[in-house]
Q: What sequence folds into this?
């Protein structure tokens, strides 16, 4: 099969590769970039485990061909924190609230919740539940996950209030 050159920015780093057009963005990130924090479970858009930010929007990377991300800015779970050892408010909240059990779904949740709270910094209960409905946790740890979103929202609101 003919290979195609593709360039994109991944976690702030310019990446160039020549790849088969059938390669998904998820597989590109895992196999070509070595960013295995993006997990694959259903591989058909149902579970959200593979969620990454594409030009800031949360997207399921198993449903996007890497060549479709030509020129895009990608952020994976590895790129959310400012620096190693400095987790984001969302990442800290998942740990504090026991929002993970086996942790397989966690990267997808963390990326989805990060985008959700950026777009909706003061969500109500219904909005949080609706936002979480796009990601599946097979350990059914939704109580802790829900609490983590509440904690992160409160912390981000406080930080915003403190900054103004
Ligand atoms: S692996 Fe992409 S949505 Fe499930
Ligand atoms: S913590 Fe195990 S699948 Fe969610």
A:
């Amino acid at each position: 099969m003919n290979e195609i050159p593709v360039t994109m920015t991944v976690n702030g780093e310019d990446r160039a590769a020549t790849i088969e057009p059938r390669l998904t963005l998820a597989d590109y990130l895992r196999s070509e970039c070595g960013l295995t924090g993006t997990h694959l479970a259903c591989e058909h858009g149902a579970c959200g485990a593979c969620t990454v930010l594409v030009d800031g929007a949360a997207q399921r990377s198993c449903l996007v061909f890497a060549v479709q991300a030509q020129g895009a800015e990608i952020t994976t779970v590895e790129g959310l924190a400012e620096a190693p050892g400095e987790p984001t408010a969302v990442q800290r909240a998942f740990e504090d609230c026991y929002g993970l059990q086996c942790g397989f779904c966690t990267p997808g949740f963390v990326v989805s919740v990060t985008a959700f709270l950026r777009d909706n910094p003061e969500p109500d209960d219904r909005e949080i539940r609706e936002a979480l409905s796009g990601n599946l946790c097979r350990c059914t740890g939704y109580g802790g996950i829900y609490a983590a979103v509440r904690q992160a929202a409160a912390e981000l609101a406080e930080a915003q209030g403190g900054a103004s």
Observations:
- The helical segments are 25-32, 89-96, 106-119, 125-132, 142-163.
- DSSP finds five helices and five strands in the chain.
- The longest helix spans residues 142-163.
- Residues 40-43, 45-50, 60, 62 surround FE2/S2 (inorganic) cluster (ligand 1) (CB under 6 Å).
